[in-house]
Structures are given as C-alpha cells and as structure tokens.
Write a structure and sequence with these properties.
The chain is an alpha/beta fold. It is built from eight helices and twelve strands. It has one domain: Rossmann fold (3-Layer(aba) Sandwich), CATH 3.40.50.150. Strands 5-4-3-6-7-12-9 form a seven-stranded mixed β-sheet, with helices on both faces. A three-stranded antiparallel β-sheet has the order 8-11-10, with no helix packed on it. α7 runs antiparallel to α8. The protein is globular.
C-alpha cells in the first residue's frame, strides 16, 4: 500500500492518516478491537513470541501486543505511511514488563523483512485497500516461521445497514463500491478471506465474524466518519458532486444522532491460519 497518490505499488489509501485519522481509528478499535484481541489470544499469542503487526496504523494493537509478549518477545509494527508510524511511536504507553515495539516503514508486497522470522503476523483492514491482496498474503506466508499463525481481519461494506432501513445507507454503500472499483480494490474482500489464505498455502483456517451495532454511544458514528474522510476522493473521482456529498454526510450524521435508529457497522470476517 502506498501513501496518498504516489508510490511504487500502485495502491492508494484514501483515508486520513496520523493525527487527522486518529479519531476514526480509535473509534474503529473500540468497536472491533475486542474481537481482534480475542482472536489473537485464541491463536496462541503469548510471552516470548516474535510478532509482526502489518499495516499497524496508529499502533493501538501493536502496543497491546507488546504487553502480551513481554520482555522475552519482540513486536514490529509496520506501515507504509510515515505519519501513521510517527503517531504510533509518539503515543505508545510502555510498561516495565515489555519492550517497546519497533516501527518500520514497509511495503506490504515487499517488506524486506527476513523469511521465517515471525511466530505470528496480524493485519486488520489491509487487504481491502490493495489491488493485489494475494501477493501481500504470499509475503506474509514467507515471513512466518513454519507453524506460525496469520491472524487477519477484513471488511464487507455491503453488510452495513440501518434499522429502520434508510436510502442513504444504500447510497453510501453504492458509492463505497464505486470508489473501490475506481481504485481497483474490493471493499467486500472479507468474504474471500478464508479461500484466499488457503490459495497462498495456509492450512484450513478458523473463521469468525464481528459486526458491531449501536443505537447510541461511541462507534455509532464510525460509518459516517469513514465517509467524511472518503468524501474528497469520491468528489475527485467524479462519483458524486460536492453538494451531493454534503447532503449524504448530513443525512448519515442525522442517523447517528437519532437514538431510535440502530446502525450496524460493516461485518468484519476474520481468519486464523497456520503455515
């Protein structure tokens, strides 16, 4: 994955990064983070392990993993975006019982990290942003030790819904898919995740789904916040006008504020697969 509109891999991350994107990522971890952590623990995360958190973003999961592996383990947080890495380095809270993570700028297709060097690799919401997700999965496979575990989560934006149903949710999903097609990526890649990991050589995966839903509180506004950050890209791609996006964002926000409306965020399939 590359940052903004330049780089070598051909993939463009359209969301805000660093300080600008931190609020969305914090909200994202509040609604999906418990499932992330439980799956990593169920997959064997523990003291002494060497772990890679690929596409680590602002480092929330990376710093948590460091506490789990303790002083005898090591953690690398890797991302292509420098502002994400700068935020991750600056906002970690280290304890005396663990080493601080190492943060590295890498390309998910070609990390330059050693082969067979990690007991576990974690990535969340990486593959849906890549034009060649299988290539990134092959790179992960290369870096894992024999018997090492991939814990990977991705998204299905078609699963987003409101109750009672809302036309603006249908419109936002359609716009999200249109933007994905424009960039050559699949924002429903989560539904292919279990077959994709087997295609690159992993064993039969364990699979689980997370789909948070709220009528109030932190997290209800996650889909709206995503579209606040996507709006400039949608307008640049001429998929909607600025006036149309202002209207859509206003209607999405009104659903967030209405406590009679249940908003279900995107389903996130997750796999745990052994090399």
């Amino acid at each position: 994955m590359i940052d903004g509109a330049k780089g070598t891999a051909g993939d463009v991350y359209v969301f805000e990064t660093g300080d600008c994107g931190a609020a969305r990522l914090e909200m994202q971890d509040k609604i999906y983070g418990a499932s992330t952590r439980q799956m990593m623990l169920d997959s064997g995360l523990g003291p002494g392990m060497q772990v890679l958190d690929l596409a680590c973003g602002t480092g929330t999961v990376t710093h948590w993993v460091a506490k789990q592996v303790g002083l005898t383990g090591t953690v690398v947080g890797a991302d292509i975006n420098r502002s994400q890495l700068e935020f991750a380095r600056a906002h970690g809270m280290h304890s005396s019982g663990s080493r601080p993570p190492e943060f590295l700028e890498v390309n998910a297709y070609d990390t330059k990290l050693p082969s067979e060097s990690f007991d576990m690799v974690h990535c969340r919401l990486l593959l849906c942003h890549l034009q060649r997700p299988l290539e990134a999965l092959r790179e992960i496979y290369r870096m894992l030790k024999p018997g090492g575990v991939l814990v990977c989560q991705d998204i299905v934006i078609s699963s987003v819904f409101s109750c009672p149903p809302s036309k603006v949710y249908e419109q936002s999903i359609a716009l999200g898919h249109a933007l994905g097609r424009h960039m050559g990526v699949n924002y429903d890649f989560g539904m292919q995740l279990h077959t994709a990991v087997m295609e690159v050589g992993f064993g039969l995966p364990e699979v689980c789904f997370a789909q948070p839903a709220q009528v109030h509180g932190v997290g209800k506004g996650w889909w709206h916040q995503c579209f606040v950050e996507l709006a400039p890209g949608i307008i640049r791609a001429e998929l909607a006008t600025e006036d149309e996006m202002v209207r859509l964002l206003g209607e999405l926000e009104s659903l967030v504020l209405d406590q009679r409306v249940l908003l279900a965020q995107a389903r996130m399939p997750a796999v745990s697969a052994v090399k």
